[in-house]
Amino acid sequence: MKKLTAMLLALAMLLSLAACGSQPQQSGQDNVPPADAQSGSQADPAPNNGTPGTPDTPDAPAEGADPQMVEYYLGKANEVAVTDTHVTFTHDGTGEEISIEKGPKNVAVLFGSLTCLWYEAGGTVQLAVGGKSATSLYKEQIGRDITQDEGVTVVTENSSGTSWDVEKIIGGKPDLIVCSTGMKGYSTISGPAEAAGIPVIGINYDGVQDYLKWFKVFCNLNGQPQLWDDIAQATAEDIMEVVAKVPQAETAPTAIILVMSSDVLKAYTYGSQPGVMLKELGGVNLVDPGSEGAATSVEINLEDIYALDPDIIFMSEFGDTGLHTLEDMFGADPVWQELRAVKNNRVIALEKALFHNKANKNYNESYRTMAQYLYPDCEF
Description:
five-stranded parallel β-sheet, 14 strands
């Protein structure tokens, strides 16, 4: 009897491993959205706009990669056109196509994660954001506090733009300004910069597709096109490999992703960065407003969580919040102890660097980590 039990267990393990690496499951939502989905739409490469040279060809997919998956992840990057002298792309602030001359010499990047991406893509900045949050990010992703580098001037202590000294920024005489459209800074600086003849790149950076697009723009502006193959393309191919290994299953893993915001417990929707990863990896987010353009997070309480009873509870860690926050709030409550995720020890912290911050070249690790949490019996 013991021998038979052992044989059955071995067979079950083999079947479980065989399921890993099959095509992504269909769990009531496409694992990889179709080409006309908002975040994965692809158009023909941007025209040359009369600048010298010939636009490059779209980036070639990895051999054997699923064409729909390639289009989904690389569609935005393939819209970027590069000539001998200019890089042409769609401006997120205006929705219009613009061309920027290669080789800017005095660059202002006024958003922490975009500064990290600029350095990753072979550049340096001369006018930068300082402050605790930004410098912590620089140390984490660049390896040092770049505000201490020779030739770098801190022009603001925050990325929001609410207290920017426009005269100080313009007075630094940048030949290019890069900032986020998600903050007030873009509306603060774009008018004065235009009047001074300074080009501004407004960026909406929501996930890996945007990372790939802007990496391609940045590395070519910085005269480092080889970094696309070495870093960004490699990251994209690794992500697609992870997604392709998601197993088929009769029942997709269900989850909620919790986060503390201004001392209020919220749950991330599919519109959030970790929510997008969860969806692309075949998981089901039980907190879904079900409407396009909905908020990236909604308030939630213990009664809501109990009613949903997910397989996995993720806690997005940043600042001083983490799993200890949930333990302090709910640990002694018998309702919390009855949750399936709590009973099965599947309350999991999502590392700040991979899921809260823009992970940049480490997005592949974000996807691999999330996939391993969702499918612990598979190897990614």
